[in-house]
Amino acid sequence: MRSGLLAMALIAAPVASSAAIAQSCPAPLAQARRLVLVVPDTMTNSTATLRRFTRSAPVAEWQADGGPVSALIGRKGTAWSHTFRNFATAGEPIKVDGDKRAPAGFFAIGRSFGFAPARRAHYLHVEEGVTCVDDPSSPAYNTISTRAQVGWQVHGENMWRVPEYRRGLLVEYPTNRAAKAGSCIFIHVRKPGAPGTAGCVALPEPEVERLQNFSVNGAVLAVVPRPALGRFKGCLPQ
Q1: Domain range enclosing 189
Q2: Is residue 40 part of a domain?
Q3: Residue 114 half-sphere exposure, CB side, CA atoms within 13 Å?
Q4: For the chain, how many structural domains are there in total?
Q5: If pLDDT is split at 50, 70 and 90, which confidence band does 89 have?
């Protein structure tokens, strides 16, 4: 009887340990079952490796689902999102609007969007007037709106005029207007010959479509420079 109880305890211990690690992982990663992991070699690289992972439960091991794929990120590299600034070490930059850096951290992937109509649930059809506001003086900062709603005096990305936005996904990037902490973060089509993005993740169009399918039931985007991977031991795939 004692040997049986001991065996059960030994089995339960790793499960309890995994659960404890999962709960200590940053949100929204802790509860995620689908992951898009973007890893640049350094914080100054404008390219990164993208891989997809899935798991059956928050305490389960991550399993590879695709990749690696070469991705383009901020032309000046990465900077820690204001929300995740406590993970930065001395000398590592914190994201601010206009810095041409992709935000490092963990973010839920939101709605698919594109120029063409689609039957995807919650799909954003980018028609004339659709604008992402990147003006910190506007209450609509870091939201998708229209020129009819915000007017033309508010600075924003006129999405229908950007060819790279013909297919993409919104990233649910936390808004902090007071800190000018960054806005309009997307996954979108990669522009041929571009040295980097203004802060988004860019991929060949077929890969963007794969991510739209992969993320339809929810997924998390993790942008973590390779030197920082060890700060999230037990939370990210090995």
Answers
A1: 2-232
A2: yes
A3: 15
A4: 1
A5: very high
